[in-house]
Amino acid sequence: MNDRAETLEFQAEARQLLRLMVHSIYSNKDVFLRELISNASDALDKLRLASMVDKDLAVDTGDLHIAIEVDRDARTLTVRDNGIGMSRDEVVSVIGTIAKSGTAELLRQLREAKDAGASQELIGQFGVGFYAAFMVAERVELVTRRAGESGGTRWESTGEGTYTITELDDAPQGTAVTLHLKPADAEDNLHDYTAEWTIREIVKRYSDFIAHPIRMTVERPGVDDAPATTETVTLNSMKALWARPRGEVEPAEYHEFYKHVSHDWADPLETIHMRGEGTFEYEALLFIPTHAPLDLFSPQGRRGVQLYVKRVFIMDDCDALMPNYLRFVKGVVDAHDLSLNISREILQQDRQIRAVRRRLVKKVLATVKELKTDQPERYRTFWAEFGPAVKEGLLEDTDNQEILLEILSAASTRDPAELTDLGGYVARMREGQTDIYYATGENRATIENSPHMEAFRAKGYEVLLLTDPVDEVWVERVGSYAGKTLRSVAKGQVDLDTEQERTEAEAERERQRTEYADLLGWMGEVLADSVKEVRLSSRLTTSPACVVGDAHDLTPTLEKMYRAMGQEVPKVKRILEINPTHPLVTGLRKAHEQGGAGDSLAETAELLYGTALLAEGGDLADPSRFARILADRLARTL
Q1: Where are the residues of the annotated region C (predicted)?
Q2: What is the pLDDT of residues 40-67, one digit of tens each?
C-alpha cells in the first residue's frame, strides 16, 4: 500500500440515507449480508461475461466464488469475491453518490414511513443494498481492483458524512468488503454476525440459490487431545430455482429469489414459473411486484428481466424479452439454445427470442386476467400500481389488444369507490345506447364538475372517468370495444333524448335556433381567433357555456403532449356551445338585440368563453386580459 489517500464528502442525499441506515430505520438487519452477497454474485457474473466479450482480458474464471471471512477477536466480517472489481472512479460514483433518479423523493417517503416494513420496501426500490452494511457496522472498509488493471482502491467510512479513498499499488482482483461490527444487541435485533450458525442460517434463508459457491473457513474443535482443525465449507446449494419443478419450491424460496433479482424488500404480488419445450427450450421465473418502482415512468428506468444461457448470466435488463409496457416485471429467463456471446443487437432480431417474448407476454397478461377473475383484491393492488403502464400496451401491442382491454379497469360515475371494466360497462348500457361514454381530465373531481358532464348526469348515463395521461391516446387509437364506439363527452354533438323526447322538443329547439341565430353569428365573429363556431348546446343544463371539439379533433391535452415531445402540430380551434336557458346567455341575447354590439358586449362574450375554458381545466390565451376585464365588471357591480 502507499499513502495516496484522499478524504471526500458523500453526496448530500447519500449522507442523509446513510444517517437513516446507521440509526436503524428497520428491524431486520440480517438482510445486509444478502445484499453484499448479491452484489458479489453480480460482480462474478459480470466478470464471466466480460471474459467472453473481451478475449484479451487476462482473467481466470475457473473458480469464481464468494468467500465469507470472520475474525471473532477483531469482530470483523468480510465478504470477498474474485469478480469484475471496480476502478477508483467507479468506487466514487457507485458508493460516494446515489446515482438514482428520485432520491429526494425516496428520502421524503422514508421520513414519512410509519413502520419498519414501509421503510425497507422503499429502500429496496432503489437497490442501495451496500448502505445496509452500516446497520451492523461501526466502520466499513472496501478493497477492490478492476479486472485488467494493475492498481487497486481502498474505500473506508464510518457513514458519518465523509469517506477516504486510497490508491493501492496492488490488491487482489475483485472486491472485499470488511465490516467492523457493532456489539451484539438482542433488544435491537443486532445478532452476533461472527457466529458460524448465524451466518449459515442467513445464507441458507436468503442466498441458497446463488449460482456461485459461497465458502467459509470454519474451525472444528479437536476430539480428546487432538488439536483443533479448520475446513472450508460451501454454505449454499447453488441450485437454480427456475430449473426446479414448481412443486419442489417453497413460496418463501420464490420470495427470497425475487428480492435477490429485484433488490426489493417486499414479497412479490405474483410468481410466474414456466417452461418452454420443443424447438426452443427455456425456463422462466417471473415476478409481478407489489409496488411500482419510483422510476417506473422515468426514461432512465430499468427493465427487470435477466437473461441466462444454460445457467450462465448474459445480461441484465434484457429489453428484447419484455415489452416496455411490462417493464415492471422482474425475473430470469434461461435459454438453452442461444450463443453465450449473443449481443443486444442480435437479440432484437432473433426469431427464437421473439417467440419466447410472445409467450412470456401472453403468460403475464393471462396471469393478470386470472387475478382479476379469482383474486379481485390483489388485482386492484396490481392495477393501482401498474395500470397506467399497462395501458401503454394498447398503443404498442396490437396483437394483445383484446386481452389488454379485458384486464383494463377505470373509474366511472356509477360508483365513486369501485372501478369498472369495459365488459361491465357494456352490460349496464341503457337500451338503445350505442356508445361507451368517457371523459378525460387531471382528476375525478375536475371531470365530475365539468360542464360536459351535465346532460349525462341529468339523464343518468354512466361515464368512464379517465385521469392518466395515456388515456388521451389509447381511447383514440382503440376506437371501440365489443362493437361499441368509445366516445368522448367533450367532442361532437350530444343528443341523449329518446325519440319521443326529441319529437316533443323539436318545436322549442326550432324557436331557439331562430331567436339565437343573430347572436351566434355575431359571437362567431367576435371570437373568430379562438373558436371555429358558436352554437347552441344540448349537453348543458346549469352552466352557461362549454368548449367542445369536433369528433376527430386533437384534444388540448394531446396538443400539449405532442409539443412537449418536440412535435409541431397545428393549433386546433374548438367549438363554443352556449346554453340557451341560462340567464347570462338570455341576457346576452337581449342586449345584442337592443343594439349593444359594442366593446362592452364583446368583452362579455370573451368572459363567457374564458369561463368555459376554465371550467374544463383549460388554459387562457391571455390570463391578464381576462383578469382585467373581470375586475372591471366586478367593480361596476359595487
Answers
A1: 561-638
A2: 988 998 898 888 888 888 888 889 999 9
Alpha carbons within 13 angstroms on the beta-carbon side of residue 5 total 10
Q: How many CA atoms lie within 13 A of 137 on its CB side?
A: 27
Rounded Cα distance, 455 and 617, in Å? 19
Q: At residue 413, does pLDDT exceed 80?
A: yes
- In sequence order, which ranges of 401-470 are alpha helices (DSSP H)? 401-407, 422-427, 444-448, 454-459
pTM, 2 dp: 0.72
263 dihedral zone (left: phi>0; alpha: psi -120 to 50; beta): left
Tell me how crowded residue 572 is: count the other CB atoms within 10 A of its CB: 14
Report whether pLDDT(433) > 60.
yes
Other C-beta atoms lying within 10 Å of the C-beta of residue 215 = 17
Which residue in 430, 394, 399, 424 sits closest to 409, CA to CA?
Answer: 424
Average pLDDT, the chain: 86
**One-character DSSP codes across 5-21:** EEEEEPPHHHHHHHHHH
Helical axes 103-112 vs 12-22, angle rounded to 10°: 30
Q: Check: CB of residue 136 under 8 Å from CB of residue 192.
A: no
Q: Which residues contact 73 (CB under 8 A, 6 or more apart)?
A: none
Q: Rounded CA gap, 338 and 60, in Å? A: 24
Q: Which amino acid is at 16?
A: Q
Interacting residues of 176 by C-beta distance below 8 A, sequence separation 6+: 78, 79, 80, 81, 142, 143, 144
Residue that is written with C-alpha cell 466502520 in the block: 139
Q: Terminal CA-to-CA distance of the chain, rounded, Å?
A: 85
Kindly provide the residue ranges of all beta strands, DSSP E only, lying in 221-263, ordered along the sequence. Answer: 229-234
3-state secondary structure of 281: coil
Compute the distance between CA of residue 119 and CA of residue 131 in angstroms, rounded to an integer: 14
What's the confidence (pLDDT) of residue 108? Answer: 59
Higher pLDDT, 612 or 162: 612
Spatial neighbors of 614 by CB under 8 A, at least 6 apart, are 620
> CB neighbours of 199 closer than 8 A, spacing ≥ 6?
33, 68, 70, 77, 193, 216, 235
The answer for residues whose C-beta is within 8 angstroms of residue 2's C-beta and 6 or more apart is 166, 167, 168, 169
Cβ neighbours, 10 Å, residue 165: 20
Cα–Cα nearest to 375, from 359, 383, 463, 281 = 383
Nearest Cα neighbor of 282 from 313, 243, 315 is 243
Strands 152-157 and 312-315: unpaired
